[in-house]
Amino acid sequence: MQNRLNPQNGLCLSALHDRAFDQGLITVLPDFTVRVSPKLKTASGDAFIKDSLIRFDKQGIHLPERFGPNPAFLTRHAKRFGYL
């Protein structure tokens, strides 16, 4: 909880992407690229999931000018959900 207010421990995400991130369906790796869970990729026949989540797999995120995400926090999230 000590980093709850740390601006480098946050990502500016839509409500959909925030929920997917919290559930581990997507993550952002320390190199600032998005990874999508294999669970979602098996649902690739679903046009909404494909268009709103799967298409971002391996894409880079747009970084803010100040207070970019700390790679250590991204690593922790990616490890927690088995991406690393």
Features:
about 80 residues, 4 helices, about 5% strand, two-stranded antiparallel sheet, 2 strands, globular, mainly alpha, about 35% helix
Instruction: Give the averaged pLDDT, no decimals.
Output: 94
- H-E order: HEEHHH
How does the helix and strand content classify structurally? mainly alpha
Biggest sheet, spatial arrangement of strands: 1-2
Helix content: 25-40%
The overall strand count is 2
Specify the biggest β-sheet. Answer: 2 strands, antiparallel
Q: Runs with pLDDT <50, length 5+?
A: none
Please, how many domains?
1
β-sheet strand percentage: 5-15%
Distance between the termini: 23 Å
**DSSP summary: helix tally:** 4
Computed Rg = 13 Å
Shape: globular
Set out the fold topology.
Blueprint lengths: L14 H8 L3 E3 L5 E3 L1 H4 L5 H6 L18 H10 L4
Could you describe the 3D structure shown?
- With 84 residues, this protein is mostly helical.
- The protein is built from four helices and two strands.
- Strand 1 and strand 2 form a beta hairpin.
Offer a quick outline of the entry.
With 84 residues, this protein is mainly alpha-helical.
